[in-house]
Amino acid sequence: GGGKGQSDENMYQFSMGSGIDVSSEYPEGRYLAMKVLGSGTYGKVLLCGDAKYKGTGVAIKLVRRDSAPYRKAAKMEAKILRALEGKHGTLKLLRCFEHGGHPCMSFELLGSALSEVLRVRAQNSQAGGGSGTPVGLSSAQVRDVGCQVLSAVSYLHSRGIIHTDVKTDNILLTHGCDWRTAEAAGALRVKLVDFGSALWATEWHPNLVGTMQYRPPEAVLQAGWSFPLDTWGVGCVLCELAVGAKVFCLAHNDVHLHMIERLLGPIPQSV
Q1: Count of structural domains within the chain
Q2: Which positions fall inside the Protein kinase domain (predicted)?
Q3: Confidence band (pLDDT; 50, 70, 90) for 42?
Q4: Which residues contribute to the annotated binding site for ATP?
Q5: Do 82 and 199 share a structural domain?
Q6: Residues 6+ apart with CB under 8 A from 85
Q7: Same domain, 52 and 177
Q8: Is 165 labeled as catalytic in the residue annotation?
Q9: Dist CA 69 CA 146 (whole Å)
């Protein structure tokens, strides 16, 4: 994790066990930093206890304070999340604030990503005497998760928003929904997260978008893209959940296009 006295000290203004969002009401900070949940070029996501609600766990996204582009992106992300209001299986934004120069957002705390669920299932298969090969979900679970993700994406699109990065890393189990107990009950409740690269369909679209293994042909070719980008991502996610591994492995653009054609046939000339 990042903290004072560490290599990224100048980039992040927090330390584990200390408070975030100091005010007259919370002189020690409203949120207690407990654990790093994830990190990327944008910054870090922390598990924090919210003093206002008796230490209830929340996720705090701490955006790099040395980057104007990331600050601008954080404002856009917050604007989109406010428009969505956490409805129809989308991530719920609780509030925005600044801490030590960092743009911050607090979110409801969710569980494991579906990519982690698949990884643990493969590990458990190996530990149980299996080959350790990928283990997909049941067809009923794939159908159930698929309906939820499609509902979220359909809702986004109805609001004129494109997520641009639909993948198993960005689909999380709802908090308290441990995948083992969920499997026993046969139900997996999920939410779509990470709207850091989401945008309104009417706004400028960057040529390069999304994560390679989930990119449709038009995005790989940088031939212009729109709402179908998310729909393709959902298709890739459903295949991954069914077989337990990504349908397309990481590869250069020409190889990626070849893999798509080998599986689905020739790419239409119109693309």
Answers
A1: 2
A2: 31-271
A3: confident
A4: 61
A5: no
A6: 92
A7: no
A8: yes
A9: 33
Whole-number pLDDT of residue 184? 63
Examine the pLDDT at 1 and tell me if it is beyond 50.
no
Q: Which two tokens stand for residue 89?
A: 């299986």
Domain assignment present for 270: no
Over range 178-192, report the average pLDDT: 73
Q: Is the model's pLDDT at 7 over the cut of 60? A: no
Output the domain CATH number for residue 83: 3.30.200.20
DSSP E strand boundaries for the chain: 19-20, 31-40, 43-50, 56-63, 93-99, 102-108, 161-162, 171-173, 190-192, 199-200
Which residues constitute the domain of residue 189? 114-264
Place 169 in a pLDDT band, splitting at 50, 70 and 90.
very high
> Under 8 Å CB-to-CB from 251, ≥6 apart: which residues?
212, 259
User: Mean pLDDT, to the nearest integer, of 253-268?
Assistant: 88
